[in-house]
Amino acid sequence: MTGRIIKGIGGIYSVAAGSDIYECSARGKFRKNGIIPTVGDFVEISVLDEKNKKGSVDEIKKRKNMLIRPRAANIDCAVITFAVTKPDINNEQLDRFLILAQQQKIENVVICINKCDLSESGDERKRLEKIYSPLYKMFFVSAEKGAGIEELRAELKGKVSVFAGPSGVGKSSLINAAAPNMDLATGEISRKIERGKHTTRKVELIEVDEDTFIMDSPGFTSLSLEYIKAEELANYFREFEPYLGKCRFNDCKHLKEPDCEIKAHIGEDISKERYERFIKFYDEICSRRG
Ligand SMILES: Nc1nc2c(ncn2[C@@H]2O[C@H](COP(=O)(O)OP(=O)(O)OP(=O)(O)O)[C@@H](O)[C@H]2O)c(=O)[nH]1
Ligand SMILES: [Mg+2]
Ligand SMILES: [Zn+2]
After folding, report:
1. Domain made up of 66-216: CATH architecture
2. What pLDDT score does 289 carry?
3. Which atom number of ligand 1 is nearest to the Cα of residue 118?
């Protein structure tokens, strides 16, 4: 029988097949080959106990993509979620999420900024729009006030979307707002550190509509670029794209080389701060290897 993994806890995978959900263990062969069944995977299962809905995962179908943090397979849309404040946006962290989504060639990567009800001036919105709106579709929303939720819902329709972002930004709250029949647990923000308290523990695939699925995921505080190669990094900065391959040197690293087309466009369509983070990430990746 064919199904899809919607949750995995302690080596037991919930597989939606037809209108049933089977609790399945995974065969030892996956572990031996280093393959980890992942939420979003299409799988072949055998039913071991129809009455109690128990089975085993026999085969994992080829994945079209896989995010590592959060771990999720076969995604159409990554909603990179942050809040205007509480917690404040960490730009470097935002770029890390974007890079990881780019690397997986997810067709739709959008930025969603929540808690707009907490910003009166709108200054943070203007700042972010200037840098990111030429690069990504952006949504400025408030889960609490319901603002912008219709637009977000329209984006999600017909897709499998994963909400990724730090803890406490309101990922679960947004899913509840976009899909009113949902009742995901949401958490308080710690007053002292103004961060979430990791309310969501697991990646979970939720069917919100016949053809629309959303994955909620736990927030991450640190996000390393461990699977990214230094020489690939420039490919994941969308604004570099028009200039790649046009530098004087074919193997230009866009660091200290003369006649670098990337550097030539800083302050134009390449923002200084994004370029600086490119350098920072580049150094981080190189030092990890050394
Ligand atoms: N003011 C305001 N608060 C919000 C909004 N959305 C969520 N919150 C609050 O922010 C806190 C965290 O929300 P969650 O939805 O649990 O955040 P999360 O991103 O799912 O967090 P993790 O599951 O830990 O990763 C809760 O206290 C929510 O009530 C919003 O639009 N405005
Ligand atoms: Mg959550
Ligand atoms: Zn260059």
Report:
1. 3-Layer(aba) Sandwich (3.40)
2. 62
3. 1
